[in-house]
Amino acid sequence: MAAGDLPITDLVARWRAGDERAANALLGQIYGVLHGIARRQIDGHAAPVSLAPGELVHEAFLKLDRGVPDANDRRHFYAIAARAMRQVLIDHESARRAAKRSGDIVTLTTFEQADPARPLDLLALDQALSELERHDARKARAIELRTFGGMEFDDIAELLGISPATLARDYRAAQAWLRVALDR
Predict the structure, then answer these.
(1) Distance from the CA of 15 to the CA of which of 21, 63, 70, 89 falls in 20 to 30 A?
(2) Pick from 112, 173, 106: nearest CA to 138
(3) Are 178 and 108 in contact (CB under 8 A)?
(4) CA atoms 85, 89, 94, 98: torsion sign
(5) What are 8-22's pLDDT values in tens digits?
(6) Which residues contact 177 (CB under 8 A, 6 or more apart)?
(7) Residues 6 or more apart from 74 whose CB is under 8 A from it?
(8) Is the separation of the CB atoms in 8 and 77 below 8 Å?
(9) How far is Cα 64 from Cα 83, in angstroms, rounded to an integer?
(10) Three-state SS sequence of 68-104
(11) Residue 81 CB: number of other CB atoms within 10 A?
(12) pLDDT in tens, 95-148
């Protein structure tokens, strides 16, 4: 069986063991899905993003290469990759703001806001998510997986090991918490 034909978790395990061919095979196998996640993240911004989806995928993959993830399954790996993309976007937004000394705001369309006419500040959202994570990691993870990973609710519930009804309650509570935090 060629490296490109192995399941994602096997390729990740081989990559963790130092097999660069497995890393290349993994990227080739999952590039389309990661590109879709990156496209959703970039398209969700009101302000222009200086990265193309392919660049976001490659920067996130490089970030993962520094600490190859230990993924339990395909969904877990995609969640880890989505988090890496979030970190890359945050890093780029921070650098852009530092260079411009501006406060342009961004909107993430997958985060349902109380007032869609008021765009979200990506850095403020990241800070609020980090604060929520200190209070309730599961709720923060649900928002992150939906907003930055573009995952469907059924997949998020399965990944978090909770029922869809519990996820719905968690998600609504997390949204309310974030609205209050972002209004501060």
Answers:
(1) 89
(2) 173
(3) no
(4) positive
(5) 888 888 988 888 898
(6) 132, 135, 136, 139
(7) 7, 8, 9
(8) yes
(9) 10
(10) CCCCCCHHHHHHHHHHHHHHHHHHHHHHHHHHHCCCC
(11) 23
(12) 777 666 544 444 444 445 444 445 556 777 888 888 999 999 999 999 888 887
| Token pair listed for 146 | 């939906």
**% pLDDT > 70, the chain:** 80
Cα–Cα distance measured from residue 46 to residue 113, given in angstroms and rounded to the nearest whole number: 14
What is the sign of the dihedral through the CA atoms of 126, 131, 132 and 138? positive
The span from the CA of 89 to the CA of 92, in Å, is: 5
Tokens standing for residue 122: 């990506």
**Secondary structure class of 126 (helix, strand, coil):** helix
Residue that is written with structure tokens 């650098």 in the block: 95
Name residue, tokens 């573009």: 150
SS (H, E, C) 7-23: CHHHHHHHHHCCCHHHH
Burial of 117 (0-12, 13-18, 19+ CB in 10 A): exposed
As a whole number of angstroms, the distance between CA 157 and CA 139 comes to 11
Residue that has been written with the tokens 């990559």 in this structure: 15
Q: How far is the C-alpha of 84 from the C-alpha of 82, rounded, in Å?
A: 5
Cβ(39)–Cβ(85) below 8 Å: no
